[in-house]
Automatic annotation (TrEMBL):
Domain of life assignment: Eukaryota
Protein name in UniProt: C2H2-type domain-containing protein
Bias (Acidic residues) ranges: 61-80
Region (Disordered): 49-92
Bias-annotated ranges (Polar residues): 49-58
Amino acid sequence: MQSASEPLDQAFAAAPRWVLHDILKELFREVGPAREIITKKLVITEDQAQCGENNSSGEGDTSEDLETSDDSDASSEEQEVTSAAPKTSSKRLRPRYAWCINCEKDFDTTENTKKSCRYHPEYCEADSDEFPDHDERCHGPMDTPENRENFPDRFVFECCDRTLEEEPCKVGWHVEDTEGPIKRRKI
């Protein structure tokens, strides 16, 4: 038997982002309790955001080289988030979620730690030696989203010679994009 929430869950999954956005804005305007819930989920004060020292503006390099994929520090990372003392007592409001300019992903600013962001500082290029019979004049470019997905071992990062299959070489704080307009991303 189908649960009562299952059709609604399917409708959420099928609805375009702009429809969900409009519904959320309407709930915010029209329903007082919904306004409080939405505000608690999406807006925080400046002192609730976690950012690296000299890193909130994207300045300063607080990243470290990542030798191996070490997830054993997960518990200390959680402690870091909860025990980090705010640098100011500002009550200015800000969005809770932001876009990281290093890893190019959304992140929760309340859970940002010095090990949250994993990224490569340099570009990834197709290794032409790995595509020996590929002629771009008749086959098209080597560096395509399809080739990256199908042949991740054939694309190498300039910074560390690692492939798309391997862990990124840098780890550090997420760095919020504060300069450009809010990017439109798929949800």
